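Subject: Protein record for review, amino acid sequence with backbone structure tokens
Why sent: The fold of this protein is of interest and is recorded here as tokens.
Notation: Tokens come from a learned vocabulary of local backbone shapes, not from coordinates.
Attached in line: The record itself begins immediately under this heading.
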Amino acid sequence: MAGEVRVERRGGVAFVTLDHAAKLNTLNPALMREFIAAMAGLAAEEGLTAAVLTGAGPKAFIGGADINVMAGLADGGAAREFITLVHGCCQAVRDCPVPVIARIQGWTLGAGLELAAACDLRLAADTARFGMPEVRVGIPSVVEAALLPGLIGWGRTRRLLLLGETIGAAEAAEWGLVEKVVPAAALDAAVEEWLGLLGEAGPRALRLQKALIRRWEELPMAQAIAAGIDSFASAWESEEPKRMLGAFAQRRR
């Protein structure tokens, strides 16, 4: 079975679940294409305010790309097509115009860690385990593994990618790989807490902020600052700043 992508809407929040629990939610071509399409659909929704990405069951967030599929790749062309799909999944998350929270439990390996890195925020259960073991099966870690140095630095990235080490949730938090670790039983409550904080923000401001952060990743400092000035000015093209600033001032008084 290829698994499926389940999308549940609760108001402006979309909960996206990769449901391939029998295979630790590993990514195969059919599942990846379904995920990319689902994320593209959500990205087009004006009423979307946030998304939560998770894997089905307690054993894994995403246990990587499907080993059996990769073992059957015939040549470099087939390999290129497969890894481009992995990148497409990560790109779909990064292109989503609203914040995406990774709700992480269990194994988060290889392509699963790349997909977590593509999210805006990462919240992990204390039982989660993280690793990039690709070199142990004869392939390099690629595509959105390129995001890891920005999260954990070059030295720790080299540890994960060259040594194929697996680390626990506490170490992942210490490294900056995840933003917060909670007991597994408290994971959903912690997600709701973050969604509550996002819900207090201006929806348009959140979209502008995510877009600006993406630009900051690619621009030299002077251009990044200039982009921020443009973004600030753009905020005033709607009534949101005046309304929210006015309400804040009123509460202060």
